[in-house]
Specification:
Blueprint lengths: L3 H4 L4 E4 L2 E4 L13 H13 L1 H10 L2 H27 L3 H6 L1 H24 L2
Antiparallel strand pairs: 1-2
Helix pairs in contact: 2-3, 2-4, 4-6
Length: 123
């Protein structure tokens, strides 16, 4: 008589005297997680472990992390562009005063990342 696991298409492997089910997480696609995807994964693992475990077992964790990574990257770029325009950080400024331009762009990038982290990664 087959077990429910075997009826659903599951298989076992022999490890010494024991039969262990062949349960492996799905193989993720060729997308490599970036900074924001890894940060989201660590946050879920450390602070929202039931959600992390449920997504891992359902096989939706990697898709979620990849989506968060893509969204964060595009949002950061958009926010940086908008803030730079609003604050008058231009190519002319870059040509005339490079240190001031770098200072302002670093400030804008840090603020944009803080917005994204608060709204998408650590929520």
């Amino acid at each position: 008589m087959k077990s429910t696991f075997e009826q659903m298409g599951g298989t076992y492997r022999q490890e010494g005297d024991y039969l262990l089910p062949n349960i492996l997480p799905p193989v993720p696609p060729d997308y490599r997680l970036g900074k924001y995807g890894r940060m989201r994964q660590r946050y879920l693992k450390e602070h929202r472990s039931p959600i992390y475990t449920a997504m891992f077992l359902r096989g939706t964790l990697f898709e979620h992390l990849a989506e968060i990574d893509r969204i964060c990257n595009t949002q950061v770029e958009q926010i940086i562009t908008q803030m730079a325009e609003r604050e008058g950080v231009t190519e002319a400024m870059k040509a005339s005063d490079q240190l001031a331009w770098v200072e302002k762009m670093n400030n804008i990038q840090n603020r944009a990342e803080e917005i994204i982290l608060a709204e998408l990664v650590y929520c």
